[in-house]
Amino acid sequence: MTDQNNNDGIKRRVILKTVAAIPLAATFGLLLSPFLRFLRPTLGPLDVLGKSDQPLAEEPIPTFTDDMFPEPWTCIEFMFSQKYLEYNPELKEVRTIPGFIVKLPSGDIVAYSRICPHLGCIFNFVKNPEECAKGYNYKPDGPVFACPCHLSVYDIAQAGKVVSGPAPRPPRKFELEKSGNTITVKSLEAGSIA
Ligand code: FES
User: Fold this and answer.
1) Which pLDDT does position 28 carry in this prediction?
2) Is the CB of 114 under 6 A from ligand 1?
3) What residue ranges do the domains of the chain occupy?
4) Which residue, 8, 51, 71, 109, has fewest beta-carbon neighbours within 10 Å?
5) 194 lines ligand 1 (CB under 6 A)
C-alpha cells in the first residue's frame, strides 16, 4: 500500500513538472525567435528554418559585356530592382535603385548604388577633376562620384572612400558576377538601400 502511494506521488510530481514546464518552454520559444532574428536579421518572424528574406534581384537583371568598357573610367548608368518580402496585401515591394558601373585603371570593374549615404540624393559621376573643383568645392586626383545636395565626394579608386563633404561612409556596392565576357549585377550590399 505504501509502495502504491509512493508510485502515485511520483507520477503526480512528474505530471505537475511537465505541466509547469509547458509555459516555460513556450516562453523560451517566443524569446528564441527575436534572438535568432537579431543574430540573422534575414529570418522571417517565427520562421527559424524558413527561407531568408534577403531582397531578391528582379528582372531585368543589368548585364554588361567587356567591350562596353573600352577604356579606364568608362562609366555606365543602370537601374537595379530588388524585391522585398513585405507584410502588405501583395506580400512584396519592388524598389529600383540607380547604379553606376565603372572600369578602374587597374582593369577591375566595380558598381555602386547612386544613392548618397548622407541623405539619399542621387550622386553624379564626375570625370574631370577641374569640374569637380568648380562644382563640388573639392579637387580630386581623378574621377569621382560627387553629390549635388551637400557636396559629398567619393573616391572611386579608393573603394568609394569619402574625401569631402558630410557623407558618413562610402556608397553601397553591388556584387558582380563575371562569366566569360559577361558581367551581371547580382545583388546590393546588405543594409538599407541608401
Ligand atoms: S545627400 Fe548627398 S551629400 Fe547630402
Assistant:
1) 82
2) no
3) 1-51, 56-188
4) 71
5) no
* DSSP string over 36-63: HHHHSTTSBTTBTTS---PPEE-SSPPE
Predicted TM-score (pTM) of the model is 0.73
What's the rounded Cα separation, in Å, for the pair 181 and 172?
Answer: 24
Q: 56-188 belongs to which CATH class? A: mainly beta
C-beta 119 within 6 A of ligand 1: yes
Ligand 1 centroid, distance to 134 Cα (angstroms): 17
Query: Order of strands across the sheet with 153-155?
Result: 124-126, 144-146, 153-155, 161-164
| CA gap 19, 34 in Å, rounded | 25
> Which stretch of 16-20, 43-47, 163-167 has the lowest confidence by average pLDDT?
43-47
Atom of ligand 1 nearest to the CA of 167: 3
Asked if residue 171 lies in contact with residue 194, where contact means CB atoms within 8 angstroms, the answer is no
